[in-house]
Design goal:
The chain is 47% helix and 14% strand. By secondary structure, the protein is an alpha/beta fold. The protein has a single domain, classed as SGNH hydrolase (Rossmann fold, 3-Layer(aba) Sandwich), CATH 3.40.50.1110. Strands 1, 2, 5, 6, 7 and 8 form a 6-stranded parallel sheet that branches. The chain has a two-stranded antiparallel ribbon with strand order 3-4. Helix 2 packs across helix 9, helix 3 runs parallel beside helix 5 and helix 5 packs parallel to helix 7. The longest helix is centred in the last third of the chain and has 21 residues. The chain is globular.
Length: 226
Amino acid sequence: MLRFMFVGDSMTIGSAGEHTWRYRLWQHLRDSYGRPFTFVGPRETLHDQVTDAPTSYAYADPGFPRAHLAGWGEGWHHMTPLIGETVRSCRADVLLVSLGLIDLGFYTNAVQTAANARTFVANARAANPRVRTAVIPVLHNIRVDADETFAEQVAHFNELLVKTVTDLDDPRSPLLLVPPPVPWDFHTDTYDGTHPNESGEHRIAGAFAEALHEEWGLGGAYAASP
């Protein structure tokens, strides 16, 4: 059984009552993969925006497998120290990673964030030398339009992420750069300029699904419509 693990920030954990792009990808793999798979991770909750804590189990579909490693306000800075033991304990085979927005906004610059991404990959591989990792660049959000310095850091990090994937890709432990969804418009694909609405959930899930299908033969083409 193939064991997928989502690693992400607020865009991945989602909030109470949301489906999340994790759910959209689960629906896709359930319908197209054709083999046993599961989602793993040490966490199960959604973020509760009322209490501002990751305490909610109010998933829109209670039948969805909820395991993940995602957190509101967490980035490469937070996940890099956790990933080795988490991959080991959860026996993860495929990591689906969406990180960087929080790092660049609050913790590290582009160069430092890229260095954390490299350490993340090394730590994951130390725990499972055959782990596969698919990572998506930082998506355009409202702050990119409002803050020129932040926009420059996002652009620089995304360039460095391309180099990181090129440098570290290994046939024994593949590293895949997921092309950002096209189109992606934070005006219509998010509910607040950052966090995906239904359309955005499908676009992010579709980006991962297409990359997994085209590069690794996992699942089929993404059939759901935003």
